[in-house]
Write a structure and sequence with these properties.
By secondary structure, the chain is mainly α. Helices cover 58% and strands 8% of the residues.
Length: 74
């Protein structure tokens, strides 16, 4: 379980990622982040639907927090 500090940190990362300020991360926003992180062209078309737990085409803050915490804790 994430501590309050970790949740705050994840919230700041989430806020920086959803470029249009709509409160969710689109496939295109996720793609840009991953390419910036990797420093090269990266295909995210197959992984994004697996991360989108509710299948709505976006990562909400709850989904992102869960995934981020699993990634860094595991």
């Amino acid at each position: 379980m994430a501590s309050g500090f970790q949740r705050s940190k994840v919230g700041r990362v989430f806020g920086a990622m959803h470029a249009d300020g709509d409160g969710r991360i689109s496939s295109a926003e996720y793609h840009r982040l991953i390419e910036a992180w990797n420093g090269c062209a990266t295909d995210t078309d197959e992984i994004f639907p697996l991360l989108d737990l509710d299948g709505d085409g976006y990562l909400c803050e709850k989904e992102f927090t869960r995934l981020w915490t699993q990634f860094w804790a595991g």
